[in-house]
Task: structure prediction
Amino acid sequence: MDLHKKSAHELHDLLVRKEIKAAEITDNYLKCIEKAQLAINAYTTVLAEKAKEQAVAVDEKIAQGEKIGFLAGIPGAIKDNICTLGIKTTCSSKILADFVPPYDASVVKKLKDASAVFLGKTNLDEFAMGGSTETSAFGTTHNPWNTNYVPGGSSGGSAAAVAAGMAAWSLGSDTGGSIRQPASYCGVVGLKPTYGRVSRYGLIAYASSLDQIGPLTRDVEDSAHLLNIIAGHDAMDSTCASEAVPDYTKSLVEDVKGLKIGLPAEYFVDGMDEDVKAAIDKAVSDYRSLGAEIVDISLPHTKYAIASYYLIACAEAATNLSRYDGVSYGARVEGDDIISMMTNTRTQKFGAEVKRRIMIGNYALSEGYYDAYYLKALKVRRLIKEDYDKAFEKVDVILAPVAPTPAYEIGSIISDPLQMYLQDICTVPLNLAGLPAISLRCGTSKGGLPIGMQLIGKAFDEPTIIKAAYTYEQGKDFYKEVAEVSK
Ligand code: GLN
Result:
């Protein structure tokens, strides 16, 4: 039985029917990790012993006749910017290389209550700043479909782990695309919830007004189940919404008849890869034949989204990262006095991309420039949100590419920051508007790499995008594929 190829819901059914033990599932995943970790580098920390203990505890519950929840005994992985009590949480940065949080993030607590098994922590771009996992201080993660290619980022480890059968599910975070874009590059399902839908307590902040945690899974059904577990109000996060949480699995029905799907002209950018264009066109015609109505729409301020996003994200990052000063926690590099200690610590322990963003952010916030940059970026943010509000008067969901190209070769654009930032054109606008979106595979490039599309919804309308994604997925079998890697 190819356990590592199964979705979480298939594994759950096997457990409920007592056809397999949770310990076997976990052992199997640990073997897959052992086989593929060297080639993929999806994990920063593997928790083999703890995972086995968690699995055995679930087997004991089952043996005692206890009814188990969806995720009980199902092994997954947590992005390494989400705090885990007693387990290193590094943000893939040298500055937090030895940081062991004294508390669990709220999502981790919820997953523990659900008796999930934690296989480990996954690699990311340093502090989630990047789109390829190449800025990690602990080495690049490789795309399981072609190890010379990036897995995307910043949740590259989380996406690669699911794609390579090294985890049945994972958590990522999405500030400007970091769940959806790696999901697209690795051919898995990534859901970025509405801002405030999932608690950020214990998510190490990159840009607090944009960050959101969400699941990466093998299929849409698993995504709905995971969201059921992690969504909901949390008194520990004042930005977490008190909106009631529906049962997202109720949206796992095939029905897009009459659904109005908007196609935003501005997301089909110049220089877009032909294979991506063809895959999206095919998805659009599939939706049409499923009974959806396709509507051309315009989101005119999209062209300002990258500039606005990078100003806001960097401004917030500069503020959030000021706490790493060698005093309270994280690494310290000594110096002759306190100033040189702080300077040495930050100079030696932050990577180049993080430093670049701190500089951009401080510049944008500094006196004399604030109005011209930061304040203007906030005004543009409002215009972008209004574009979506207007579009959603006409349509129920918006369908768009996730990125202008499929995954690219490792090292090919990382030395050109502007080129890197421009890749985010299709993902950052909706983070600025706080909207939910799901990314799922809709094709394959001529080079054999997955291509994804995203379905964007109204605020708190995850049910509609889940339903639309689920309906599309039923006719396809992309999600049954797992990249076989070993080295
Ligand atoms: N690539 C974007 C950035 O570098 C998005 C990152 C993210 O969502 N964490 O900021």
